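User: Sequence for Lytic polysaccharide monooxygenase below. Tokens please.
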Amino acid sequence: MPRTSFKIAVGAAATAVTAAGIPVVLASPALSHGYTTSPVSRSSNCATGKVKNCGAIQWEPQSVEGPKGFPARGPADGKICAAGDGRWAPLDDPRGGQWPATRVTGGQAYTFSWRLTAVHSTSSFRYFVTKDGWNPSAPLTRAQLDLTPFLQRDYGGKSPGSNPSHPGTMPAKQGRHLILAVWDVADTGNAFYSCADVDFG
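Assistant: Structure tokens for Lytic polysaccharide monooxygenase:
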């Protein structure tokens, strides 16, 4: 087949595939995606069907990506759990404080785990917890969080692997709280945000 005819045929095939709703995969760098599995994140609860009426996040629990630099920058207050992305807005809905909560013990050793569906060079993983007296029936804001991470793991640009885990200690808390995990990507302007409801008893 002459080169010109080949180019036309390839272009027509790509157009037909796109029109059929099948994505055309182009060679490009892999993008990072991920969410916490321990404690169980809101994204994970939606993906497994434990929580209903989550919208599109049930199919893309790994895609909660927004600007990095938290807490000085990043998602606006009230939109933190969805990383400021309107597609994932159900994650910001407190549901009257009724999200399923992982039972944990304050002051005890705990291993925080992620599932990454695409790995990227990493600056750090950081973990924040809500203050005593926070309002679980309201969307998360900076004022409700202790803005110093209770756990941080630095990677210096290295890859974390597909299932990173971070041994640490749970904060000394009681009752229901929210843990915000932030995965800071090293070579883009973004981070991944993962909110997990916990119950310290």
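Helices lie at 3-19, 42-47.
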